[in-house]
Amino acid sequence: MATSADPASNTANLGFIAAIVSVATIGGLLFGYDSGAVNGTQDGLRAAFGLSDASLGFTVGSLLIGCFIGAFIAGRFADLFGRRNVMIVAAALFLVGAIVQGLAHDHLIFIIARLCGGMAVGTASVLSPAYIAEVAPANIRGRMTTVQQVMIISGLTLAFVVNYFLAAAAGKSTNLFWGGIEAWRWMYLCQALPAAVFLFALFFIPESPRYLVSRGRHESAAGVLARLFGATVAQAKLEEIRASFGTDHRPRLSDVLAPGTGLRPIVWAGLVIAVFQQLVGINVIFYYGETLWKLAGASEDTALQRNIISGLVSIGACFVTIALVDRIGRKPLLLIGSAGMTVALFVMTYVFHNGTLDAAGALQLSPHDGFVAVVAANVYVIFFNLSWGPIMWVMLGEMFPNQIRGSALAVCGFAQWFANYLIAQSFPIMAAKLGLAATYSFYAVSALISFFLVQRFIGETKGRELEDMVG
C-alpha cells in the first residue's frame, strides 16, 4: 500500500509541480473574481434592467445555475476528454462571459453570459483541485490544493478592490467611466485579463497522469509521471495507478452507485461536506456583502471597504490552513471551523435582532452593535477559511477512488453549486421578509449541525495516496 513515505514523495520535482499548480489555480482566481464581481454592481443592475428584489436574486443567482451545470458536466467530460482540455474550454468561457456581461444592454443576453461564466466557474471549482490532487505528492497534497482556496479568496478580494476603486473613481458605481461605460460594467470587464492569461497558460501544463491511465495511454502517463516524480519511480507509480482502475470498464457515472444500496457511502460523505459548506451562508457575505452592510446601516463606500477587509482576513486564514492541513489533518480543521462559525453566526443573529428599523424599514444598528457585527462577521470568515472553505475542495479532490473521481465530482459539484444557488437566490427575499436575524439564525443552526455530521460521517485523508482511497 502506498503511503506518504512513498518514494514518489521523496523524488518529486517540486519546482515543476509548483509551476503547474500555479497555472491550475488561476482557475480558482477566476472562480473567485467572477463570484465576487457582482458584489458592488447591484445598483447598476437594478438601474440598467429595472430589477425587483426577486429579479435581482435571480440575476445574481444565474451565475450559480451555470455553476451547478458546469460542475456536473465537467466531472463527466473530464473523464472523457481530460482535465486540462476541459479547463481550456472553461478559460474560454471565462473570457467571453466577462466581456459580454460588461457590455450587455439586454437582460436576457446578460443572463446568458452570466450562465456561461457560471459554467466556467463550476468547471474550475471541481477540476482545479482534482487536477492538483492528481499531480501532487500525498505528503504536500493538502497544502497544494489549499492554494486553490487562497486563489479563490484572492479573486474575490481582487474583485472587491477593483469594485471599490472603480466606484470611487467614478463617484458611484452607476456613473459613467472609461469609454463612456458605467463603472459597474467595468467591474465585469476587468476579469477578461486574468481569463486570457489562464487560457494561454493552460497550453503549457501536462494532462493528469491518472486520466491518461484511465484512457489506456500508459506511455504518455509514464512520461508525465517521470517529469513529476523522476524516472526511477515512474513505472512503479504507473502500475499502482493502473491497479486502482476497474479492469472491466472505463470510468462512468454509474460507478458512484453501490450494488443494490444507492450511492456509495463515500459519495454520501462528499455530499455532506459539499452541501453544508453552502448552508452556513458564507456566500451571502461574498455575493451580497455590500447589500448586507447597507441593510445594517453602512454607506456604499463603507460597505465596499468592509468587503475588502473580509477578503484580506480570508486570505490570512487560508495561509494558516496551508500550515496545518498536512500536519493535523482535514477532519480536525472541519470540526474547529464548524464550532467557530456556529458561535460567530449566533452572535451576528443576536446583534441583528437588537437592531431597529428606520422610517423606510431599513435596519439600523447602534455604533457598538455595528462594531460587534463587523468583528463577528470577520471571525466567521476566519473560521470558514481556516476550515470548510479550503478543506471541502481538498477533500473532494482526493477522497474518491480513481475509478469514480470524475463521476463523484460531478454529483458532489452539482450538489454544492445547487445549494450555493439556493442560498444566493433566497437571501434577498429572506432578508426582506424575515429580517437579518431570522436569516442568520438559519445559517447558525446549519453550522451547528455540520459539526455533528463531520464527527459521524467524514473520514481522514491526510497523507494517503489516491490509490488507497476506498468507498
Description:
The chain has helices at residues 7-10, 14-24, 26-37, 42-49, 53-81, 83-103, 107-135, 141-170, 183-189, 192-201, 209-214, 218-229, 231-244, 265-279, 282-295, 300-324, 330-354, 367-386, 388-398, 405-433, 436-457, and strands spanning 257-258, 262-263, 356-357, 363-364. It has a single domain (7-468), classed as MFS general substrate transporter like domains (Growth Hormone, Chain: A, Up-down Bundle), CATH 1.20.1250. The chain is globular, with a radius of gyration of 22 Å. Strand 3 and strand 4 form a beta hairpin. The protein contains 21 helices and four strands. Helix 5 (53-81) packs across helix 7 (107-135), helix 6 packs antiparallel against helix 9 (183-189) and helix 14 (265-279) packs parallel to helix 20 (405-433). Mean pLDDT is 84; it is low at 1-5. The relative contact order is 0.16. It starts with 6 loop residues before the first helix and ends in a 14-residue tail after the last helix. It is 75% helix and 2% strand. A two-stranded antiparallel sheet has the order 1-2. Strands 3-4 form a two-stranded antiparallel sheet. The chain is mainly alpha-helical.
